[in-house]
Design brief:
Shape: globular
Strand order of the largest sheet: 2-1-12-11-10-9-8
Number of helices: 10
Structural class: alpha+beta
Largest sheet: 7 strands, antiparallel
């Protein structure tokens, strides 16, 4: 299956020479004259209405960064820029960044068999699964990603049921339902297997990985708020749990929008952001594209995003040098309206 064919990736914008990097504080600027300010403010007023609109649910935070500067920011009721918000599956994209750093350090080869202990019997077809297959959700492992029906959901059982003490072992014990690299299937279990591989490649247990996250990713780009969650086995729950402020999620987004470079230092290996946003073949009924632990196309061709349950988003639009961060409580069909709302917001900058 491998990568889906498509048009060339749009270029990633460089940090403007007259804009400081937001390592310590975010620079702020007024909206560009090119933006449709009236329409933007109408969209924000609707999203932050009290009571919340029935079709969207509550929006708790919104942040727009253009040319490396905050141009819009708003919070729900008593929430502020200092409050942290759940990542849910936006943590998957943070996991992808950590894997990239381990690749740059020579500790991981994403194209070699993943070496997962549960898959090492000589006759186990899962031996052929690579980290690349896992990052592109194309491992072929069985896993039911359902957030509502606890009777059929593997993700609920993994995070809150019998799998919660060792999320990666729980996920790794599922059988194949398709040959590796033949079927795309979104799976939080996959991400926790990836997170355990990363932790084992680094060594040092939970404390070592927690320190690593800070030293190589969070601290260099000024992310002071991250609160990653680990299971009892010491694995970062890389599918779902890294709380941050909206401004820190925007910093993470800026690192990717700037091709993994921060203030002259390469944080992610060369080509890693392009790997994240290179399309993987997805089923015809999947409305969004998918790369490697990043979603594609939410705010137009060339956009890529970290998406989380209940409407958590960090969206990058390279052609506009734009980052949109949204947090809220928008279940099920409300989430579809939030996606449409975000696409409308991005259109206001065109």
């Amino acid at each position: 299956m491998s990568h889906a064919p498509g048009s060339p990736l749009p270029p990633l914008p460089s940090q403007p020479s007259d804009v400081p990097w937001p390592t310590a504080a975010w620079p702020e600027a007024p909206l560009s004259d090119a933006a449709d300010a009236d329409r933007l403010h109408r969209l924000l007023d609707r999203a932050f209405a009290d009571p919340a609109p029935d079709d969207m649910g509550e929006t708790h935070a919104f942040l727009a960064v253009q040319r490396g500067q905050i141009v819009l920011e708003r919070y729900w009721q008593d929430l502020t820029a200092n409050d942290t918000f759940p990542s849910w599956s936006m943590a998957k994209s943070i996991t992808q960044a950590l894997v990239g750093i381990l690749v740059m350090q020579g500790k991981i080869n994403i194209h070699a068999p993943a070496g997962v202990p549960e898959w090492q019997a000589m006759d186990d077809p899962r031996r052929e699964i690579t980290l690349d297959h896992l990052l592109r959700m194309s491992s072929g492992l069985k896993f039911t990603e359902d957030y509502v029906d606890g009777e059929v959901s593997d993700v609920i059982d993994m995070l809150f049921g019998q799998g919660k003490h060792d999320v990666a072992a729980f996920a790794a014990n599922f059988p194949l339902e398709a040959a590796p690299d033949t079927v795309w299937s979104y799976s939080s279990g996959t991400s926790n297997v990836v997170a355990r591989i990363a932790g084992q490649a680094l060594g040092g247990g939970r404390e070592g990985f927690d320190r690593f996250m800070g030293e190589v990713l969070f601290d260099p780009i000024g992310m002071k708020s991250p609160k990653p969650k680990f299971d009892d086995a010491g694995t970062f729950i890389g599918s779902s749990f890294c709380y941050c402020t909206a401004r820190d999620f925007a910093r993470f987004g800026l690192l990717y929008l700037r091709d993994g470079i921060w203030d002259g230092e390469r944080i992610l290996p060369e080509g890693w952001v392009d790997y994240a946003r290179t399309p993987t073949a997805v089923p015809a009924d999947e409305p969004l594209g998918y790369g490697a632990h990043w979603w594609l196309g939410l705010c137009g061709p060339g956009s890529f995003s970290a998406n989380g349950y209940q409407g958590q988003y960090t969206i990058l639009v390279p052609e506009l040098d734009l980052i949109l961060v949204r947090h809220g409580d928008s279940l099920d069909e409300k989430g579809e309206q939030v996606k449409r709302w975000l696409a409308e917001v991005a259109d206001c900058f065109r």
